């Protein structure tokens, strides 16, 4: 194994054989050669510059000193290489200095960097999201001043939403923005408040850091507006245009279980009189603006989780083929065999493959929908699938990494191997950018009970897969199972719509998301199994893994739906239960 | 919350209301006061001496220096306190200096220490197991020389089974023991070989360390016998009776993801000519001797995993009651509420309670069976349940700790809170003392397909619970479900017995163990829900948690049985699947 990243044949299968990205106008224009060149480059840079410091960055966390935060120098070197090769800009339009590559190609590229070093890859992911937000909602002057340096990879960006008392509940944000005149960069404010969990909040890698800050403008009475409607978005650079330090202080670093190379800060704004910031777009639009970007950020989290799962899977395969231990059941003599020959280890490898490739397939499918944003059904489907793309890879990618440790036995629990770090890194993904519980409410509430366009499109597409699979003698039984599963989910939704106390419909939103997510992945596995790729071995492996998913995973869907279907409000939990 | 350990009322419920340990002769003799005194003492010592250095021991790992291994001084201080109070000896017979307390009481005591600091608690656990093995199989002279100092807590013990090339596969052990005369301590040997994963393998806490080493005596041709039948057991002390150093060298330390306070060593035996060891019992009995102790060690692993789950649960409850975030669904104004009021958080707390208390119940039930070792059906049932007691708490205790992180949100992912460490610590438990895959083979092969006494006893006891629950209007539906589940498991076993290629019956042994384990815990939850304890609030909470387990967890059993029932040998995995 030259490196443990995602095999190129897998990406080629997903992008070309399965999703047929050649049909996208941007790809048709560039030609497959450009896509190939970007994927080649990404694999090489990820392997050469991101992978080598994976463990070092875990062992040498960022340090806060009097002059700011210092990160492992290898992180900066890798990111400067990334910038020099134009990878920050690849997805931006040519007029912004980019190549105009589709989101799905950028996502496939990002997956390699995330597989190599998720913590280092987080910096460009945040920076690109930041720049895209400014490019979308900012003025031309703001774009020139704050987006272009990020697109060039000279400045990095952050997203400042959470506060110590406001994580999932952004309505309670207390950062205050007071009007302070106007200049060429827009309407100017002075911000005061505390922002928590700021990834990339300070470091010594880039020339400047552009913070995008959610804050509230007080009313005439000086009080902050209630709810999320009062949130506006502000550009707050670390260094002001004149080179002076803005009033943003690092109040402390969070020391995490994993993802340690990504510095995570508590930032104090305005301790010296108010941090200077310029409003993006109109007042009160902050959350809406953030959420347009948040969808892509959520797919990005999913890709990262899938990539960690993939890498753990590849380490497991390599280890299982090398490690000799035990004999076939019933045999007591002869030399020990490779553990990859034991059925239980094969089960653990198949499960990892099903989770990792299923997760990656889902995220790239969603990235494809991002690229089809002109198409209303695609956009509705994207909205529906985004909470799944955030959650399923995070939950099951972690399960894959858990199995990767198990395949390695005691060695997997030591820091001499990478799998324990992959597992620690991946544990974050079910938390940041909206926890699993938050995604479940989004899926069931906003995306299903309140709207139905995405649901209709999903059922339609699943129907096409079922119809095609019904004609394949091996896959036909799975087609029947899949159709029945989705019928069951539809019945569950009908029951939830009929619940007398509407709020109690959400009591088991998370088990519902678990069921829904597995049913989505079952659909995608069946759809992938239908592809007859030129790579016959890969086609066979896809079909075998599809079968594993239907044998071992699909039966769980009914188990998760049971409490959703049966639990009513009579089962409320009394406070004393936990005494 | 004065401390996050296991509440006394929970232990009282399990020991007295549910398991009625007063019926055990040893408890009847001592009286409940002695049990209460031991539990009081354990709680206090665990809270005062084990809990405070939990995080310190994680941050300051054992160090290997030229004079040996040094551990955090607080570990030694805690263990000397533990020894001074007679806790090493509590379970041994009075003639060995102990109190003769039943195993179940010692287990409940151990659970508190494991909850407080699993890594520090591992030292006495290993030492007691070592001393018990010598006390069972050793000569009177060996007992005096090597067991008594451990029972007094002056010397500590280890178990040396694994080697770098032989973990799960002990048949491949290559440590060689050459006969070297005989003395008062028994037949003497010189040992050479490498032992891996030796917990407590060296440290600066106790006066001496007694290694129990599995090794093979070469035949007349100088070759080591094949298979596990050739394994014998040897006492190899770090310091010989004359005070000289034995030929045992620490070749390195394993750096683990968690459990860091427990030093874990690679030991080289015989680099200087041969480590002196005395055989315990007869040649070729090594594995049988180890396994008698291993059953208790496996229950001990389960108790540790359950204790970690319990502590994470208690941290979660405390945090969820304090942390204000969000509003009830449908409300947009008013102050934020405690997250313990959100149904999704309640679900995560209930799940943790169900896992932690279910796991602890299982382990104490098994400990009770250990105490009834004169009774053949109890012994058979203990054999059947031991792989479950090892595995279920390890797998679901980890799931509980995962939820504990999730309840804490981003804070739970930081090292400022204890839950991330609980999660890292607990991840070991599915690996050591026989991985989950090994336990699954033991359950399905040795304990079910080869023998049926334990199965008959289990079905009988479940039948009694079902009959009793059928008379309770609330619990009657669960009784029906439980009976049906066990009928399904019985049918699965019949199918597996009829498999044409017997070895393929084991292909899905691990999903079978998952199903079996959940069905065992469902039985115990129903059995606990039948108890009418004086503590009415606790009784109500048990019934509510039982309901949660039947709503959310029992449906999974069918999902795990599906692949066991359907997968035949036609589904073998070709080697190319993982390319």
Descriptive terms for the model:
homodimer; 579 residues; alpha+beta; eight-stranded mixed β-sheet; two-stranded antiparallel ribbon; 16 helices
Per-chain topology:
The structure is a homodimer of 579-residue chains.
Chain A: H1 8-18, H2 25-30, H3 32-50, H4 54-59, E1 63-65, E2 68-70, H5 73-84, H6 103-137, H7 140-151, E3 155-160, E4 176-183, E5 186-199, E6 208-216, E7 231-237, E8 248-253, E9 264-269, E10 275-279, H8 286-322, H9 343-371, H10 376-408, H11 419-426, H12 436-449, H13 453-469, H14 476-497, H15 509-529, H16 536-566
Parallel strand pairs in A: 3-6
Antiparallel strand pairs in A: 1-2, 4-5, 5-9, 5-10, 6-7, 7-10, 8-9
Molecular structure report:
The structure is a homodimer of 579-residue chains. With 579 residues, chain A is an alpha+beta fold. Chain A is built from 16 helices and 10 strands. In chain A, strands 3, 4, 5, 6, 7, 8, 9 and 10 form an 8-stranded mixed beta sheet that branches. Chain A has a two-stranded antiparallel sheet with strand order 1-2. In chain A, β4 and β5 form a beta hairpin. In chain A, α8 packs parallel to α10, α8 runs antiparallel to α11 and α9 crosses α16. Chain A starts with 7 loop residues before the first helix and ends in a 13-residue tail after the last helix. Chains A and B meet through α9, α10, α11, α12 and α15 of A and α9, α10, α11, α12 and α15 of B.
Number of helical elements of chain A: 16
Rg of chain A from C-alpha positions? 24 Å
Categorize the overall geometry of chain A. Answer: globular
Considering residues with a beta carbon less than 8 A from a beta carbon on another chain, report the largest interface and each chain's count: A-B, 96 and 96 residues
- Quaternary state of this entry equals homodimer
Can you write the helix and strand succession of chain A as a string? HHHHEEHHHEEEEEEEEHHHHHHHHH
Distance between the termini of chain A: 53 Å
Binned, the helix content of chain A reads: 40-55%
Q: How much is the average pLDDT of chain A?
A: 96
What's the total number of strands of chain A?
10
Name the poorly predicted regions of chain A: none
**What percent of residues of chain A are in strands?**
5-15%
The major sheet of chain A is characterized as: 8 strands, mixed
Structural class from helices and strands of chain A? alpha+beta
């Amino acid at each position: 194994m030259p490196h443990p990243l995602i095999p190129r044949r897998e990406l080629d299968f997903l992008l070309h054989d399965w999703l047929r990205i050649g049909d996208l106008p941007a790809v048709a224009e560039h030609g497959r050669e450009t896509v190939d060149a970007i994927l080649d480059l990404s694999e090489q840079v990820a392997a050469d510059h991101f992978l080598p410091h994976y463990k070092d960055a875990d062992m040498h966390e960022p340090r806060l000193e009097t002059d700011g935060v210092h990160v492992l120098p290898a992180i900066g070197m890798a990111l400067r290489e990334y910038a020099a090769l134009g990878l920050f800009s690849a997805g931006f339009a040519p007029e912004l200095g980019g190549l105009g590559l589709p989101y799905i190609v950028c996502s496939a590229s990002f997956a390699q960097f995330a597989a190599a070093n998720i913590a280092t890859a987080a910096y460009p992911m945040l920076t690109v999201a930041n720049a895209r937000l400014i490019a979308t909602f900012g003025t031309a002057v703001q774009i020139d001043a704050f987006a272009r340096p990020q697109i060039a990879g000279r400045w990095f960006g952050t997203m400042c939403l959470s506060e110590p008392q406001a994580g999932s509940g952004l309505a309670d944000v207390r950062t205050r923005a007071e009007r302070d005149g106007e200049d060429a960069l827009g309407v100017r404010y002075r911000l005061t408040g505390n922002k928590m969990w700021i990834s990339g909040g300070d470091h010594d890698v880039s020339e400047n850091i552009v913070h995008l800050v959610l804050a509230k403008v007080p009313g005439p009475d000086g009080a902050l507006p209630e709810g999320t409607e009062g949130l506006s978005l502000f550009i707050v650079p670390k260094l002001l245009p004149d080179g002076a330090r803005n009033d943003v202080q690092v109040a402390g670093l969070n020391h995490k279980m994993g993802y340690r190379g990504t510095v995570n800060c508590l930032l104090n704004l305005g301790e010296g009189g108010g941090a200077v910031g310029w409003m993006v777009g109109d007042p009160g639009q902050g959350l809406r603006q953030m959420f347009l970007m948040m969808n892509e950020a959520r797919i990005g989290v999913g890709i990262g989780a899938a990539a960690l799962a993939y890498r753990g899977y590849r380490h497991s395969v390599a280890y299982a083929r090398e490690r000799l231990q035990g004999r076939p059941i019933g045999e007591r003599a002869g030399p020990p065999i490779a553990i990859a020959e034991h059925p239980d280890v094969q089960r653990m490898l198949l499960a990892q493959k099903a989770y990792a490739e299923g997760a990656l397939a889902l995220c790239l499918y969603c990235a494809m929908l991002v690229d089809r944003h002109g198409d209303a059904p695609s956009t509705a489907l994207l909205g529906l699938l985004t909470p799944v793309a955030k959650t399923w890879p995070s939950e099951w990618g972690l399960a894959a990494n858990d199995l990767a440790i198990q395949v390695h036995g005691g060695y997997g629990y030591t820091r001499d191997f990478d799998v324990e770090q992959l597992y620690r890194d991946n544990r974050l993904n079910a938390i940041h950018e909206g926890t699993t519980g938050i995604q479940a409410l989004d899926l069931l509430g906003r995306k299903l009970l309140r709207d139905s366009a995405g649901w209709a499109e999903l059922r339609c597409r699943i129907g096409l897969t079922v119809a095609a699979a019904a004609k394949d003698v091996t896959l036909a039984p799975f087609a029947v199972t899949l159709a029945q599963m989705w019928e069951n989910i539809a019945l569950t939704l009908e029951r939830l719509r009929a619940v007398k106390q509407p709020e109690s419909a959400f009591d088991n939103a998370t088990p519902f998301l678990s069921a829904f997510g597995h049913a989505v992945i079952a659909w995608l596995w069946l759809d992938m199994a239908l592809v007859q790729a030129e790579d016959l071995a890969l086609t066979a492996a896809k079909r075998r893994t599809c079968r594993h998913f239907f044998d071992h995973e699909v039966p769980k869907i009914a188990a998760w739906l049971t409490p959703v279907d049966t639990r009513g409000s009579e089962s409320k939990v009394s406070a004393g239960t936990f005494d």
